[in-house]
Protein backbone atom coordinates (compact mmCIF):
# COMPACT_ATOMS: atom_id res chain seq x y z
CA UNK A 1 0.00 0.00 0.00
CA UNK A 2 1.04 3.63 -0.43
CA UNK A 3 1.75 5.43 2.84
CA UNK A 4 3.57 8.49 4.13
CA UNK A 5 6.62 7.46 6.12
CA UNK A 6 8.79 9.53 8.50
CA UNK A 7 12.31 8.07 8.81
CA UNK A 8 13.88 11.11 10.56
CA UNK A 9 12.35 14.07 12.36
CA UNK A 10 12.57 17.49 10.69
CA UNK A 11 10.70 19.79 8.31
CA UNK A 12 7.80 18.86 6.04
CA UNK A 13 10.28 17.31 3.55
CA UNK A 14 10.75 14.28 5.85
CA UNK A 15 7.21 13.14 4.90
CA UNK A 16 7.90 10.73 2.02
CA UNK A 17 5.53 8.55 0.01
CA UNK A 18 6.55 4.89 0.19
CA UNK A 19 5.25 1.44 -0.66
CA UNK A 20 4.65 -0.53 2.54
CA UNK A 21 3.23 -4.03 3.11
CA UNK A 22 -0.56 -4.23 3.53
CA UNK A 23 -1.59 -4.81 7.17
CA UNK A 24 -3.10 -8.18 8.14
CA UNK A 25 -5.78 -8.15 10.88
CA UNK A 26 -4.97 -10.15 14.01
CA UNK A 27 -7.29 -11.25 16.83
CA UNK A 28 -10.01 -8.63 17.36
CA UNK A 29 -8.57 -6.29 14.71
CA UNK A 30 -10.00 -4.62 11.63
CA UNK A 31 -8.28 -3.37 8.48
CA UNK A 32 -9.84 -0.18 7.11
CA UNK A 33 -9.26 0.91 3.52
CA UNK A 34 -8.82 4.63 4.14
CA UNK A 35 -10.18 7.23 1.73
CA UNK A 36 -9.21 10.29 3.79
CA UNK A 37 -6.88 11.14 6.67
CA UNK A 38 -7.15 14.15 8.97
CA UNK A 39 -4.14 16.43 9.50
CA UNK A 40 -3.69 17.97 12.97
CA UNK A 41 -1.19 20.49 14.36
CA UNK A 42 0.07 17.73 16.69
CA UNK A 43 1.20 15.75 13.62
CA UNK A 44 3.53 18.69 12.86
CA UNK A 45 4.83 18.89 16.45
CA UNK A 46 5.61 15.13 16.40
CA UNK A 47 7.20 15.25 12.93
CA UNK A 48 9.50 18.09 13.99
CA UNK A 49 10.22 16.54 17.45
CA UNK A 50 8.81 19.68 19.08
CA UNK A 51 7.24 17.75 21.97
CA UNK A 52 8.11 14.89 24.33
CA UNK A 53 5.97 11.95 23.21
CA UNK A 54 7.59 10.97 19.93
CA UNK A 55 7.01 7.62 18.23
CA UNK A 56 9.95 5.36 17.38
CA UNK A 57 11.31 5.94 13.86
CA UNK A 58 10.28 5.12 11.22
CA UNK A 59 6.56 5.72 11.61
CA UNK A 60 3.44 6.49 9.56
CA UNK A 61 1.75 9.67 10.91
CA UNK A 62 -1.93 10.27 11.54
CA UNK A 63 -4.62 9.53 14.14
CA UNK A 64 -7.70 10.48 12.12
CA UNK A 65 -9.14 8.72 9.10
CA UNK A 66 -12.24 7.41 7.37
CA UNK A 67 -12.96 4.72 4.81
CA UNK A 68 -14.43 1.25 4.34
CA UNK A 69 -13.95 -1.86 6.46
CA UNK A 70 -11.86 -4.18 4.28
CA UNK A 71 -11.09 -7.20 6.50
CA UNK A 72 -11.86 -8.48 9.99
CA UNK A 73 -9.53 -10.65 12.07
CA UNK A 74 -10.68 -13.56 14.23
CA UNK A 75 -13.06 -12.47 16.97
CA UNK A 76 -13.58 -8.96 15.53
CA UNK A 77 -17.29 -8.20 15.57
CA UNK A 78 -19.73 -5.32 15.28
CA UNK A 79 -18.72 -4.39 11.72
CA UNK A 80 -18.95 -5.99 8.27
CA UNK A 81 -16.73 -5.72 5.21
CA UNK A 82 -17.82 -2.63 3.26
CA UNK A 83 -19.13 -0.63 6.26
CA UNK A 84 -18.45 3.13 6.08
CA UNK A 85 -16.46 4.10 9.19
CA UNK A 86 -14.37 6.83 10.78
CA UNK A 87 -11.44 6.10 13.09
CA UNK A 88 -10.51 7.31 16.55
CA UNK A 89 -6.92 6.05 16.30
CA UNK A 90 -5.07 2.95 15.15
CA UNK A 91 -3.57 -0.14 16.80
CA UNK A 92 -0.08 0.32 18.28
CA UNK A 93 1.75 -1.54 15.48
CA UNK A 94 4.88 -0.48 13.56
CA UNK A 95 4.25 1.76 10.54
CA UNK A 96 0.55 1.99 11.33
CA UNK A 97 -0.95 5.49 11.01
CA UNK A 98 -3.73 7.02 8.96
CA UNK A 99 -1.57 8.81 6.33
CA UNK A 100 -1.88 5.57 4.34
CA UNK A 101 -4.20 3.56 2.13
CA UNK A 102 -4.87 1.09 4.95
CA UNK A 103 -4.81 1.10 8.75
CA UNK A 104 -4.98 -1.64 11.35
CA UNK A 105 -7.42 -0.86 14.17
CA UNK A 106 -8.97 -2.35 17.28
CA UNK A 107 -12.77 -2.40 16.99
CA UNK A 108 -12.86 0.30 19.71
CA UNK A 109 -11.19 2.64 17.18
CA UNK A 110 -13.89 2.08 14.54
CA UNK A 111 -17.12 4.11 14.46
CA UNK A 112 -20.00 4.24 11.98
CA UNK A 113 -19.81 7.07 9.43
CA UNK A 114 -23.35 8.21 8.56
CA UNK A 115 -24.21 8.09 4.86
CA UNK A 116 -24.76 11.88 4.69
CA UNK A 117 -21.09 12.57 5.61
CA UNK A 118 -18.16 12.29 3.17
CA UNK A 119 -15.00 10.36 3.97
CA UNK A 120 -13.16 13.70 4.25
CA UNK A 121 -15.67 14.82 6.87
CA UNK A 122 -15.21 11.51 8.69
CA UNK A 123 -11.46 12.11 8.76
CA UNK A 124 -12.14 15.51 10.37
CA UNK A 125 -13.86 14.08 13.45
CA UNK A 126 -11.57 12.33 15.89
CA UNK A 127 -8.98 14.71 17.37
CA UNK A 128 -10.94 17.92 16.78
CA UNK A 129 -14.31 16.78 18.11
CA UNK A 130 -13.01 14.63 20.96
CA UNK A 131 -10.83 17.56 22.08
CA UNK A 132 -13.74 20.00 21.91
CA UNK A 133 -16.05 17.63 23.79
CA UNK A 134 -13.51 16.81 26.49
CA UNK A 135 -12.73 20.52 26.95
CA UNK A 136 -16.33 21.72 27.13
CA UNK A 137 -17.92 18.83 28.98
CA UNK A 138 -15.29 16.89 30.95
CA UNK A 139 -12.99 19.75 31.94
CA UNK A 140 -15.13 22.93 32.00
CA UNK A 141 -18.31 21.05 33.03
CA UNK A 142 -20.24 23.49 30.82
CA UNK A 143 -23.97 23.77 31.41
CA UNK A 144 -26.86 24.64 29.10
CA UNK A 145 -27.56 28.36 29.40
CA UNK A 146 -23.92 29.26 30.09
CA UNK A 147 -21.87 31.44 27.77
CA UNK A 148 -18.70 30.16 26.09
CA UNK A 149 -15.98 32.02 24.21
CA UNK A 150 -14.32 29.79 21.61
CA UNK A 151 -11.07 31.73 21.34
CA UNK A 152 -9.95 30.49 17.90
CA UNK A 153 -13.24 29.30 16.43
CA UNK A 154 -12.33 28.94 12.74
CA UNK A 155 -10.06 25.86 12.93
CA UNK A 156 -10.70 22.18 13.51
CA UNK A 157 -11.23 22.25 17.28
CA UNK A 158 -12.98 25.63 17.17
CA UNK A 159 -15.66 24.57 14.68
CA UNK A 160 -16.26 21.40 16.69
CA UNK A 161 -16.54 23.37 19.95
CA UNK A 162 -19.05 25.82 18.43
CA UNK A 163 -21.27 23.01 17.14
CA UNK A 164 -21.14 21.03 20.41
CA UNK A 165 -21.76 24.12 22.56
CA UNK A 166 -24.77 25.10 20.43
CA UNK A 167 -26.16 21.57 20.62
CA UNK A 168 -25.83 21.80 24.43
CA UNK A 169 -27.84 25.02 24.60
CA UNK A 170 -24.98 27.41 25.34
CA UNK A 171 -24.60 30.99 24.12
CA UNK A 172 -21.57 30.92 21.83
CA UNK A 173 -19.06 33.70 21.16
CA UNK A 174 -16.24 32.83 18.77
CA UNK A 175 -13.21 34.53 17.23
CA UNK A 176 -11.47 34.23 13.85
CA UNK A 177 -8.66 36.20 12.26
CA UNK A 178 -10.24 36.58 8.82
CA UNK A 179 -13.61 37.71 7.46
CA UNK A 180 -14.06 34.26 5.88
CA UNK A 181 -13.35 32.65 9.26
CA UNK A 182 -15.89 34.89 10.99
CA UNK A 183 -18.52 33.98 8.37
CA UNK A 184 -17.69 30.33 9.06
CA UNK A 185 -18.15 30.60 12.82
CA UNK A 186 -21.56 32.26 12.29
CA UNK A 187 -22.57 29.48 9.89
CA UNK A 188 -21.55 26.88 12.48
CA UNK A 189 -23.79 28.41 15.13
CA UNK A 190 -21.90 31.18 16.94
CA UNK A 191 -24.22 33.93 18.19
CA UNK A 192 -21.45 36.55 18.00
CA UNK A 193 -18.14 36.63 16.08
CA UNK A 194 -15.04 38.73 16.81
CA UNK A 195 -11.70 39.39 15.11
CA UNK A 196 -8.90 38.28 17.45
CA UNK A 197 -6.52 40.55 15.52
CA UNK A 198 -8.62 43.71 16.05
CA UNK A 199 -7.35 46.06 18.80
CA UNK A 200 -10.73 46.48 20.54
CA UNK A 201 -12.20 42.99 20.30
CA UNK A 202 -12.02 42.18 24.04
CA UNK A 203 -14.29 45.15 24.80
CA UNK A 204 -16.69 43.84 22.16
CA UNK A 205 -16.79 40.41 23.85
CA UNK A 206 -17.54 41.93 27.26
CA UNK A 207 -20.21 44.17 25.76
CA UNK A 208 -21.87 41.16 24.11
CA UNK A 209 -22.28 39.62 27.59
CA UNK A 210 -23.76 42.84 28.99
CA UNK A 211 -20.53 43.31 30.98
CA UNK A 212 -21.04 40.07 32.93
CA UNK A 213 -18.27 38.10 31.21
CA UNK A 214 -18.23 34.55 29.88
CA UNK A 215 -18.57 31.35 31.90
CA UNK A 216 -16.15 29.29 29.82
CA UNK A 217 -13.26 30.05 27.46
CA UNK A 218 -11.97 27.33 25.13
CA UNK A 219 -8.47 28.68 24.42
CA UNK A 220 -6.51 27.63 21.31
CA UNK A 221 -3.41 29.76 21.87
CA UNK A 222 -2.95 30.36 25.58
CA UNK A 223 0.53 31.87 25.33
CA UNK A 224 -1.07 34.80 23.48
CA UNK A 225 -4.44 35.01 25.23
CA UNK A 226 -4.49 33.54 28.74
CA UNK A 227 -4.14 36.83 30.59
CA UNK A 228 -6.82 38.41 28.38
CA UNK A 229 -9.11 35.42 28.98
CA UNK A 230 -8.97 35.91 32.75
CA UNK A 231 -10.24 39.46 32.31
CA UNK A 232 -13.21 38.18 30.28
CA UNK A 233 -14.46 35.65 32.84
CA UNK A 234 -17.65 35.90 34.84
CA UNK A 235 -17.64 34.74 38.48
CA UNK A 236 -16.85 30.99 38.68
CA UNK A 237 -15.54 31.16 35.10
CA UNK A 238 -13.24 28.49 33.65
CA UNK A 239 -10.55 28.75 30.98
CA UNK A 240 -9.61 25.47 29.30
CA UNK A 241 -6.10 25.56 27.83
CA UNK A 242 -6.39 23.49 24.63
CA UNK A 243 -3.48 24.98 22.65
CA UNK A 244 -0.28 26.67 23.77
CA UNK A 245 2.91 27.48 21.86
CA UNK A 246 5.11 29.34 24.36
CA UNK A 247 5.26 31.05 27.76
CA UNK A 248 2.81 33.63 29.08
CA UNK A 249 2.62 36.08 31.96
CA UNK A 250 -0.71 36.32 33.77
CA UNK A 251 -2.10 38.43 36.59
CA UNK A 252 -3.22 35.64 38.93
CA UNK A 253 -5.23 38.18 40.95
CA UNK A 254 -7.78 38.12 38.12
CA UNK A 255 -8.70 34.55 39.14
CA UNK A 256 -9.22 35.44 42.83
CA UNK A 257 -12.23 37.75 42.90
CA UNK A 258 -13.99 35.54 40.39
CA UNK A 259 -13.24 32.16 42.00
CA UNK A 260 -12.04 31.37 38.49
CA UNK A 261 -10.12 28.31 37.30
CA UNK A 262 -7.52 27.65 34.62
CA UNK A 263 -7.82 24.06 33.45
CA UNK A 264 -5.33 22.16 31.31
CA UNK A 265 -6.55 19.60 28.78
CA UNK A 266 -4.70 16.96 26.80
CA UNK A 267 -6.74 14.49 24.77
CA UNK A 268 -3.97 11.93 25.30
CA UNK A 269 -5.07 11.77 28.98
CA UNK A 270 -8.52 10.45 28.04
CA UNK A 271 -8.90 6.86 29.24
CA UNK A 272 -10.38 4.06 27.14
CA UNK A 273 -13.63 4.50 29.11
CA UNK A 274 -13.59 8.27 28.48
CA UNK A 275 -13.19 7.64 24.76
CA UNK A 276 -16.15 5.24 24.65
CA UNK A 277 -18.33 7.87 26.33
CA UNK A 278 -17.00 10.75 24.20
CA UNK A 279 -17.49 8.91 20.91
CA UNK A 280 -20.98 7.77 21.95
CA UNK A 281 -21.87 11.46 22.25
CA UNK A 282 -20.09 12.42 19.02
CA UNK A 283 -21.61 9.54 17.06
CA UNK A 284 -25.11 10.62 18.16
CA UNK A 285 -24.37 14.21 17.08
CA UNK A 286 -23.00 13.10 13.71
CA UNK A 287 -26.05 10.89 13.10
CA UNK A 288 -28.63 13.56 14.03
CA UNK A 289 -26.88 16.33 12.08
CA UNK A 290 -25.96 18.60 14.98
CA UNK A 291 -22.26 17.86 14.31
CA UNK A 292 -21.17 18.64 10.76
CA UNK A 293 -17.37 18.50 10.22
CA UNK A 294 -16.04 21.27 7.95
CA UNK A 295 -13.20 20.43 5.55
CA UNK A 296 -11.48 23.58 4.35
CA UNK A 297 -8.62 22.11 2.32
CA UNK A 298 -7.95 18.73 0.74
CA UNK A 299 -4.56 17.48 -0.50
CA UNK A 300 -3.62 14.21 -2.23
CA UNK A 301 -1.75 11.79 0.07
CA UNK A 302 1.48 12.42 -1.88
CA UNK A 303 1.27 16.12 -0.90
CA UNK A 304 1.32 15.52 2.86
CA UNK A 305 4.23 17.97 3.16
CA UNK A 306 2.09 20.78 1.71
CA UNK A 307 -0.75 19.80 4.07
CA UNK A 308 1.63 20.15 7.03
CA UNK A 309 2.52 23.67 5.91
CA UNK A 310 -1.17 24.53 5.42
CA UNK A 311 -2.28 23.33 8.88
CA UNK A 312 0.11 25.79 10.54
CA UNK A 313 -0.88 28.82 8.42
CA UNK A 314 -3.06 31.67 9.69
CA UNK A 315 -6.53 31.99 8.19
CA UNK A 316 -7.87 28.63 9.38
CA UNK A 317 -11.10 27.32 7.81
CA UNK A 318 -12.11 24.01 9.38
CA UNK A 319 -9.90 20.99 8.83
CA UNK A 320 -7.05 20.06 6.48
CA UNK A 321 -7.52 16.54 5.07
CA UNK A 322 -5.47 14.16 2.91
CA UNK A 323 -7.28 12.13 0.25
CA UNK A 324 -5.72 8.68 0.23
P1 LIG B 1 -6.21 25.02 13.64
O1 LIG B 1 -7.24 24.32 12.81
O2 LIG B 1 -4.92 25.40 13.03
O3 LIG B 1 -6.92 26.32 14.28
C1 LIG B 1 -6.20 27.25 15.00
C2 LIG B 1 -7.18 28.31 15.49
O4 LIG B 1 -6.50 29.26 16.32
C3 LIG B 1 -7.80 29.10 14.34
O5 LIG B 1 -9.16 29.33 14.62
C4 LIG B 1 -7.01 30.40 14.38
O6 LIG B 1 -7.72 31.48 13.80
C5 LIG B 1 -6.88 30.57 15.87
N1 LIG B 1 -5.95 31.62 16.26
C6 LIG B 1 -4.80 32.03 15.66
N2 LIG B 1 -4.29 33.10 16.31
C7 LIG B 1 -5.14 33.37 17.33
C8 LIG B 1 -5.20 34.37 18.35
N3 LIG B 1 -4.24 35.29 18.48
N4 LIG B 1 -6.22 34.33 19.21
C9 LIG B 1 -7.21 33.41 19.14
N5 LIG B 1 -7.21 32.43 18.19
C10 LIG B 1 -6.20 32.43 17.31
O7 LIG B 1 -5.85 24.11 14.90
P2 LIG B 1 -6.81 23.12 15.74
O8 LIG B 1 -6.69 21.76 15.19
O9 LIG B 1 -8.14 23.78 15.84
O10 LIG B 1 -6.06 23.14 17.14
C11 LIG B 1 -6.04 24.35 17.90
C12 LIG B 1 -4.91 24.28 18.93
O11 LIG B 1 -5.23 23.25 19.87
C13 LIG B 1 -3.55 23.90 18.34
O12 LIG B 1 -2.54 24.59 19.04
C14 LIG B 1 -3.44 22.41 18.61
O13 LIG B 1 -2.10 21.97 18.73
C15 LIG B 1 -4.17 22.31 19.94
N6 LIG B 1 -4.78 21.00 20.20
C16 LIG B 1 -4.62 20.51 21.46
C17 LIG B 1 -5.20 19.31 21.79
C18 LIG B 1 -5.07 18.81 23.20
O14 LIG B 1 -5.23 17.60 23.44
N7 LIG B 1 -4.80 19.70 24.15
C19 LIG B 1 -5.91 18.57 20.83
C20 LIG B 1 -6.08 19.14 19.55
C21 LIG B 1 -5.51 20.36 19.26
P3 LIG B 1 -7.25 32.22 12.44
O15 LIG B 1 -6.43 31.25 11.64
O16 LIG B 1 -8.55 32.59 11.81
O17 LIG B 1 -6.45 33.41 12.91
Short description:
Helix content is 30%, strand content 27%. The protein is of the alpha/beta class and 324 residues long.
Keywords:
single chain; 324 residues; alpha/beta; Quinone Oxidoreductase, Chain A, domain 1; Rossmann fold; 2 domains; 7-stranded mixed sheet; 10 helices; globular; binds NADP nicotinamide-adenine-dinucleotide phosphate
Descriptive overview:
It is a single chain. The chain is an alpha/beta fold and 324 residues long. It contains 10 helices and 15 strands. Strands 3, 4, 5, 6, 7, 14 and 15 form a 7-stranded mixed beta sheet that branches. α3 crosses α9. The radius of gyration is 20 Å and the shape is globular. Bound molecules: NADP nicotinamide-adenine-dinucleotide phosphate.
Domains counted in the coordinates: how many?
2
Largest sheet: 7 strands, mixed
Mean pLDDT: 97
* Coarse structural class: alpha/beta
**What is the second-level CATH architecture of the largest domain?**
Alpha-Beta Complex
Query: How big is the Rg?
Result: 20 Å
The outline comes out as: globular
| Number of helical segments with 4 or more residues | 10
Q: State the low-pLDDT regions, or none.
A: none
CATH superfamily of the largest domain, by name, is Medium-chain alcohol dehydrogenases, catalytic domain
CATH classification, class level of the largest domain: Alpha Beta
Measure the end-to-end span: 10 Å
H/E element sequence:
EEEHEEEEHHEHEHEHEHEHEHEHE
Strand content: 25-35%
Question: Helicity level, as a percent range?
Answer: 25-40%
CATH topology-level fold name of the largest domain: Quinone Oxidoreductase, Chain A, domain 1
Instruction: List bound small molecules.
Output: NADP nicotinamide-adenine-dinucleotide phosphate
The tally of beta strands, per DSSP, is 15
